[in-house]
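Quick log. Single chain, no ligands specified.
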Amino acid sequence: MFQVILTSLMMLLHLAAQVGQDAKVVCGLDVSPLIPPGVAIVETYLPPYIGAAYDARLRVILINQDVCLTERPATIISFVMHERTHALDPVKTSTEDCYQKEIAAYLVQVKTWRDLGPTLPRETPTERFLSDLADGSRDIEGWVRQAYQEQCK
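-> predicted structure:
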């Protein structure tokens, strides 16, 4: 238990140092033009099923460090654009508002995914997921309402 707490504190200190530097480079990509003023972006540990997240309290976009190793730049940029959407409008006032903001963020992510390449790649699970959303094989609203039930309570 002590090791878990110590590891968590070390991660928070590392994150605080990066946020203090107002980092605008993630996964080797300069994303400065995409990041709203007052928002930082950092690579950090996140569970494997989370590619990115936005922390409204810290005003920081978190990119899973594993994404940097496994995904192409277009995928990373699509994550940045999704989380940027949350950074621009972070307050969720109700369950329905939460769903609508997630749907809006996925629509931005999918538009970015479509716009960054002539074809929809499907080499990684993340690419297959984004391509399924982009080509309509998977319904964005239906998926969000199922996947975000706990988060939007």
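The first strand starts at residue 25 and ends at 26.
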